[in-house]
C-alpha cells in the first residue's frame, strides 16, 4: 500500500498555512523584530480589552508555553502589560500598552497588503478558499 503525503489534504493545508505565515513573518520580523508567536499574541490582543494566556492558546492554536514566552518577551519590550484576572486569581490577563497599540497600528497596513497579495495570487479562487476555510474552521 502506498501513501502520497503530498496529496493528503491535512498535509497540504499545513504546508500552505506555514508558507503563507512565514511569508508574512519575514516582513514583520525585518521591520519590527517580532517572532511569529509574538505577532500572534499582539494581533489577538489588538481586538480585545484583556485576554488570558489560556484564551490565546485556545484561539490561536499555539502551545501555552509559546504563548507564555511570547507574552514575557512582549512585556519586557513594553508592548503588553499583565494584570491579575479579577474572576480567577490564578490567571493573568494581558492587554496592549500604548506602545503596543502604536506598533499594531503600524503593522496592520502591512498585514492588509500581504493578505491582498496572497488573495490576488488566487484570483477568483480566493472566494472559494474563504468559503472552504470558513467551513473547516467552524466550531464543532
Short recap of the structure:
The protein is mainly alpha-helical.
Overview of this protein structure:
- This protein has 140 residues and is mainly α.
- It has one domain: Arc Repressor Mutant, subunit A.
- 66% of the residues lie in helices and 9% in strands.
- It has six helices and three strands.
- It has helices spanning 9-32, 36-46, 53-60, 64-76, 98-122, 125-136; strands at residues 51-52, 80-84, 92-96.
- A three-stranded antiparallel sheet has the order 1-3-2.
- A hairpin with a 7-residue loop joins strand 2 and strand 3.
- Helix 1 (9-32) packs across helix 5 (98-122) and helix 3 crosses helix 4.
- The chain is globular, with a radius of gyration of 17 Å.
- The protein starts with 8 loop residues before the first helix and ends with a helix.
- The model has no long low-confidence stretch (mean pLDDT 89).
Amino acid at each position: 500500500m502506498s501513501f502520497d503525503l503530498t496529496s493528503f489534504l491535512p498535509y497540504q493545508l499545513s504546508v500552505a498555512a506555514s508558507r503563507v505565515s512565514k511569508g508574512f513573518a519575514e516582513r514583520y520580523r525585518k521591520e519590527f523584530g517580532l517572532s511569529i508567536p509574538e505577532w500572534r499574541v499582539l494581533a489577538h490582543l489588538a481586538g480585545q480589552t484583556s485576554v488570558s494566556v489560556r484564551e490565546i492558546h485556545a484561539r490561536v492554536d499555539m502551545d501555552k508555553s509559546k504563548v507564555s514566552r511570547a507574552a514575557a518577551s512582549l512585556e519586557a519590550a513594553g508592548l503588553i502589560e499583565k494584570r491579575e484576572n479579577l474572576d480567577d486569581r490564578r490567571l493573568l490577563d494581558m492587554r496592549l500598552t500604548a506602545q503596543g497599540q502604536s506598533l499594531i497600528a503600524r503593522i496592520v497596513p502591512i498585514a492588509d497588503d500581504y493578505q491582498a497579495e496572497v488573495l490576488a495570487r488566487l484570483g477568483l479562487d480566493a472566494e472559494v478558499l474563504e468559503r472552504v476555510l470558513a467551513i473547516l474552521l467552524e466550531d464543532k
